[in-house]
Amino acid sequence: MVILDALxxxxxxxxxxxxxxxxxxxxRCGSCSAEVNGRPSLTCxxxxxxxxxxxxxxxxxxxxxxxxxxxxxxxxWNYEVNRRIAPFQPxxxxxxxxxxxxxxxxxxxxxxxxxxxxxxxQDVCHVLRNHTxxxxxxxxxxxxxxxxxxxxxxxxxxxxxFLKDDGGVGYCNITKCCTExxxxxxxxxxxxxxxxxxxxxxxxxxxxQMVWRKVTGRGRPGGAPADGxxPADGxxPADGxxxxxxxxxxxxAGPTGSSG
Length: 260
Ligand code: SF4
Ligand code: SF4
Ligand code: FES
Hints:
This protein is mainly alpha-helical. The protein has 2 domains: 3-73, Beta-grasp domain (Ubiquitin-like (UB roll)), CATH 3.10.20; 76-251, Fumarate Reductase Iron-sulfur Protein, Chain B, domain 2. Helices cover 33% and strands 6% of the residues. A 3-stranded antiparallel sheet has the order 2-1-3. Strand 1 and strand 2 (39-42) form a beta hairpin. Helix 6 (140-150) packs across helix 9 (188-205). The model is unreliable at 222-260 (pLDDT under 50). FE2/S2 (inorganic) cluster is lined by residues 22-25, 27-32, 42, 44.
C-alpha cells in the first residue's frame, strides 16, 4: 500500500471532497507530487511500510507552488519557464535522414530525458522555495532540460547567455537536494548543473579564453567560434557528425570537463 492508496481511502471514507492530483499510479506521470513528512515525494511511490507502525504520516502540498486546494498546487509557472528555453536546433543544411551521432553521445543525454516533470526538484530547491527569486532562476528541472539540449551531439543553439542571465544558473550553490529527491535518479547536479556552470564560467569568466576570443574570434583554443556557430576550419563535418575517429562530443564539457 502506498500513500496515494491511503489518500484514496480517506477520500472514500472520511473526506470525499479532498483534492488530490494523480493519474498513472505508476510513478510515470509526475502528477501526485506532495510533501510526505516534509520530504518532496511521489505519493504513488512512497510505501506506508517505509514508516514505523503507529507513526504519524503528514502529507502536505508542495510549498514552492501556489496552493489551489488541499494537495493540489498550481505548477503552471514551470510551463512558462519551459517556453523560454530555445528548443532543439539541428543543422539547417542537413536533411533529417542524414543526421548521425555516436551511441555514447546519445547515452549521455538519455539520462536527462528520463524526467517525468514531477517538479519535486523544483519544490525542494531553496532558491524557488523562498518565493522571492523564482523569476530569476529556472530551477533544476529546467537546467536538466537545457543540459539535454546543450549536450546533444548535433544541437547548434547557444543557450549560455540565457543560462547566465535569465536562467540564473549562478543561484545554484550545488547543495544536491534536487538530486536526492529525484524519483528518476537523475544526477541533476553532477551531470547537468555543474557542466552547465563550467560552460558559462569558461565563456564569460575565464580570462585566458576572453583574450583568446578577442584575438581569434573563436570560442576557445581549438573549439567553436564564440558566437556558437560551427567552426570555420571544418573541424566538424557539415552533416553534424564527428570528425573521423572522434566522438561527436569530444572537446565539449563532460560531467567534470569544461568547454566554451
Ligand atoms: S543543487 Fe542547486 S538546483 Fe539543486 S536544490 Fe541545490 S540550489 Fe537548487
Ligand atoms: S529532474 Fe527528477 S525530480 Fe526534477 S522534475 Fe524531473 S523527474 Fe522530477
Ligand atoms: S500518479 Fe503518476 S506519478 Fe504518481
